[in-house]
Amino acid sequence: MSIEVRNITKTFGRFTALCDVSLSVPSGQLVALLGPSGSGKTTLLRVIAGLEHPDGGSGSVLFHEQDVAGQHARDRHVGFVFQHYALFKHMTVFDNIAFGLTVRPRHRRPGRDEIRRKVQDLLRLIQLENLANRYPSQLSGGQRQRVALARALAVEPKVLLLDEPFGALDARVRQELRRWLRRLHDEIHVTSLFVTHDQEEALEVADRVVVMNAGRIEQVGTPDEVFHQPATEFVLNFLGHVNVFRGRVQQDRVVFGSLAVDAPGAAAAEGGEAKLFVRPHELDILVHPGRFDCLPARVTRIQSAGPFVKLELLTEDGQPVHVELSHDRSNRLGLHENDTVYVRPRQSRVYLGQYSI
Amino acid sequence: MRLRIKQPSVLPGFGLTLGFTLLYLSAIVLIPLAALFLKSAGMGWSSFWATVTSPRVVAAYKLSFGAAAIGALINAVFGFVVAWSLVRYSFPGKRIVDAMVDLPFALPTAVSGIALTTLYSRNGWIGQYLEPLGIQAAFSPLGVTIALTFIGLPFVVRTLQPALEDLDPDMEEAAASLGASRWRTLRRVILPTVLPSLLTGFALAFARALGEYGSVVFISGNMPMRTEIAPLLIVAKLEQYDYAGATAIAVVMLLISFAILLAINVIQWVASRHRIGG
Questions:
Q1: For the segment A143-189, what is each residue's pLDDT rounded down to a tens digit?
Q2: Could you tell me if A89 and B275 are in contact, meaning their C-beta atoms sit under 8 angstroms apart?
Q3: CB-based contact (8 Å) between B175 and chain A?
Q4: How far is Cα A116 from Cα A102, in angstroms, rounded to an integer?
Q5: What's the ipTM?
Q6: Going edge to edge, which strands form the sheet with A243-250?
Q7: CA–CA separation, B265 vs B4, rounded Å?
Q8: How open is the CA angle A108-A113-A119, to the nearest 5 degrees?
Q9: Nearest by CB to A100, which of B179, B181, B277?
Q10: Which residue, among A214, A218, A176, A211, has the nearest Cα to A196 in the 3D structure?
Q11: Whole-number Å distance between alpha carbons of A190 and A308
């Protein structure tokens, strides 16, 4: 079931949480809403669920081409998973999962045996078959969130909405659970939208990523697209660390100190300001300047624990630069703190004012 | 093996505070109650039994416990509504309404008794409209119930307010997104969650109503067998220098109240068993 949102605006007092947002999620996809806190991602999710109402008359929400804006949350058939689980504390795991089925009006309520069978199936799906009679307070955070997910799935929702589902869990459990969510989605294929502020989570799990900032959508694309072809400076900055160099346009090159980058077509902005963005893994280190354009810098810190060797450098004009090298490369260079090295971008993005090349 | 009561703990003062608690409870509660039992024991079993089973005393017990229970029940329902609206909504004058809830606490009971009697008597503001309907409010068991409801309200509201403030709105939203109607959410999610506090409020209002004397003696009319409450009978016995008879009535009241409060506590314990660390 596809989800479509058209021109939604939502304000809380003088704060604009959503500003004319439109989004469409194709049927069967797992989509991440990614953004910093206050970017409006949770508000958008709650508007889709019917837990929040857009400003008077603005926009519409469609499920499978059908307008649901006038419908109450209970009639939208949406599975909603909360950051802090929101399990019913006085009910067992079994009763929690069965809740959505047992509160149906009598003529649509399944029989006792059918409910039991269905809950058992879901317990198997979340791998908690032997904890049916536990209470939420007796479960770990990861287990609680899986119960919350099963509870949402029990009513066979048209769409599944997850609000920072792994936000309250510790790092190990987060990783485990998000991979599990991906596998689960591949099994059941229900259109899912999840909110996160963790770019790694979004890039790893989602089919498509929606990057939000200050109540607007900055970019929608596959994880590859948003990471490698960021549409805006914000997206570039938000998806992982990035080094920024400031320089000026000279003819069809952009000059950053002793470093110059070809920028065909930049000549029009002669003398204008330009910014160069390079991710830490896109920088290479040379011991001798050779014939390449490069920036001299001093090594201030080498941190080699982890999958990469992380270097912190300081350029001559006092700008810190972060570089990530493979252990191989780092060993061959044989670097020490306080060495002077030369930094060369293998790949970079130049932004001239508003425009990117 | 030595019995270890004290668990090693970084929090100091266990011995001191427990000692003080026992001393304080003994001086304030246990010794007077023991004296009560001793005094009534002095009269012998047969006259004790004759006193507490005399028709007039039994009628007073029935009225006292019945009216207190009904009053506490009414308060549990309407106190919930009052607490709910005070916690959930903001409206002009909310602080004044909030302060008004405590009035039955603050008012001398005789004052509230006289005020209620004036209101509900045959030509009072409210009584004059009840009279044509054949309802006699003042000087009847109904009047006793009204007075006991009046004085019990703050207990329910004040114990429920913090519980309702702690209620996680996520849980209600989860119930709604799972298709539960408002009524079902109230019955299956909200009520079970606040039940321990509701029971505490009920128990407090009930206990307070049982011991109430000042306001009831004015509105009840104190007719033997009909509108006499147990505390009034105790005072009557005291006035006739029948100290043993007075303590006998008190001892039975005490035992029944203790049994009821204990039962409520057990229910409450069962209801809140699963919330540790929830």
A1: 999 999 999 999 989 899 999 998 888 888 889 889 989 998 998 88
A2: yes
A3: yes
A4: 11
A5: 0.82
A6: A259-262, A253-256, A243-250, A273-278, A349-352, A355-356
A7: 27
A8: 85
A9: B179
A10: A211
A11: 37
User: Minimal CA–CA distance to A346: which of A298, A299, A297, A276?
Assistant: A276
Maximum CA extent, chain A: 81
CB pairs under 8 A between A and B: 82
β-strands A3-12, A60-63: how paired? Answer: antiparallel
| Residue A32: both structure tokens together | 């991440």
- Which residues in chain A have their CB less than 8 angstroms from residue B166's CB? none
| Sequence-ordered list of residues with C-beta below 8 angstroms from that of B4, at least 6 positions apart, any chain | none
- Partners of A346 in the β-ladder: none
Q: Do B176 and A72 touch (CB under 8 A)?
A: yes
d(CA A305, CA A341): 21
**Per-residue pLDDT tens over the stretch A14-38:** 899 999 999 999 999 999 999 999 8
DSSP secondary structure letter of residue A138: G
Measured between alpha carbons, how far is residue B147 from residues A104, A106, A312, B111, B222 in Å?
42, 42, 78, 11, 14
What is the gyration radius of the CA atoms in chain A, in angstroms?
Answer: 25
Residues of A within 8 A of B175 (CB-CB) are 88, 99, 103
Helix and strand numbers (H, E) in chain B are: 15, 0
pLDDT, position B131? 84
SS3 content of chain A, % helix, strand, coil (to 5): 30, 35, 35
**Given the structure tokens 């079970």, which residue do they identify?**
B192
Q: Is residue B116 left, alpha or beta, with left meaning phi > 0 and alpha meaning psi from -120 to 50?
A: alpha
* Contact predicate A158/A150, CB 8 Å: no
CB-hemisphere CA count at 13 Å for A9? 10
- The Cα of A155 is separated from the nearest Cα of chain B by a number of Å equal to 7
Mean pLDDT by 10 residues, chain B (278 residues): 61 85 91 88 88 93 95 96 93 92 89 92 87 86 93 94 92 93 92 91 93 90 89 92 91 91 88 58
DSSP B16-65: HHHHHHHHHHIIIIIHHHHHHHHHHHTT-HHHHHHHHTSHHHHHHHHHHH
Separation CA B123–CA A263 (nearest Å) = 97
* CA atoms lying within 13 Å on the CB side of residue B185: 17
